[in-house]
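Teaching assistant's notes for section 4

Start the section by putting this record on the projector. Ask students to predict, before seeing the second block, whether CotH kinase family protein will look compact or extended. Collect guesses on the board.
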Amino acid sequence: MSGEGLPTRKITIDEADLRRLQADVWSNEFAPVKLEMDGVAMDARLRFRGGHTRNYPKKSYEIHYGDNGILHWNAEFDDPSMIRNALSFHFFEMMGLPAPRTQHMWLEWNGYPHGVYLEIESVDRTFFRKRKLGSRALVYAVNDKANFSLIDPDTEGAKESLLDGYRVMHGNVARTEKRLTRFVRGINRLPRRSLKTFLAKRLDVSVYLKWLAGAVLTGNYDGFDQNYALYEHYSTGKYRIIPWDYEGTWGRNCYGRLCGSDLVDVKGYNALTRKVLSYKDCRRAYRKLLKKMLETKFTLNAIEPVIAEMYERLTPAIRDDFTRKWPFRSFEAEPELFRSYIEERRAIIYDTLNAWKD
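Reveal the predicted structure now:
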C-alpha cells in the first residue's frame, strides 16, 4: 500500500505502550510516540479518540506535539467516501462560518501502512489565533446532554447539572461554567420578552443561524445536541458556535447507513433553536439565509467541483488502502449519492420555505 499524492505521517510507538492503550479503548490516556511529519521527527503523545468508533479495528487518534500542537486523525471508518467531514467543513467556510481545516493523509505505523486518514485541525487557542478571533472561553459539547435544555435526554427528568454534556477547554473554568449555567437556565426560564433581550446580549444570533443552516443543509442529525464547540467572543461576550464531527451527513448517518434526505427537520433541533426561531425576525432571517444558500452555495454547480477535486486527490490512495471497511467500488459510487442528496435536499427545503409563512 502507498499514499500516492497524500502527505505522509509516521508514528513509532513502543509495543508495551500500544498494548496499554488497547487494554482500555475508552481511556483518554496518552502514550508517548515518535512522530515524523513534513520530514521532521519529534516527540509526541497519542491517544484514541471518538465515540462508538473506538471499538472499530481501525482507530482514530488525537496527537499532541511540539508547542501545544494538536491534530485529530480520523479513520472515517463508516464513511465510504472519506470526504463527508472535509466537505462539510469546507461548506461551512463557503457560508462564511469558521470551521476546522482538513487534509487527507497517509499514515505509517511502526513502519507498516496504516491507510488513509483525515487530518482535522483542533478547535483550540491556535484555531482562534490563526483567524484573529478573540475567544474568552471555549466549551466542547461532548455528548447529547449538551442540548441547551434543563432535561436529560436519557432519563427525561431534570439534569443533575446544567453543565452535563459540556467540557471547558480554555478560559477560567469556574467563571466559564457559571456563565454557561446562567445561559442555559436563562434560555429555559426567562419570560418571552426578557428572553429576547437576553439572547441579543448573550448569543451572536447571526452566527447561530448560519451554523443552524449549515447543519440543516448537510443533514447532520447528530449535530444539534452535541458535536459542536461553543466559544465566548472576547469583545462582545456573546456565544458563537463552531461545527465539529460531520461524518454522518450528505445522505448517510453517523454509522454510514443510508438515510433519507428528509431526515433532518428544516427548522432544526435543540432547545436553543426552538427559542431563537420562536421570534418572527429570527425566522425571517433564517429563511432568507436558507434561500440565499439554495441560490448560491448549496448547489450542484458550487459543490460538485469540490467533490471532484477531493476525489482526484484521494482516489489513488483509496484504491491501495485495504484497511478500510468499504470496497473501492463503494468509494467510486459515492459522488452520485452526493448529487442525489443535494438535489433532493434542495427540493425539500424549497417546499418547506414555500409553506412556511409566519
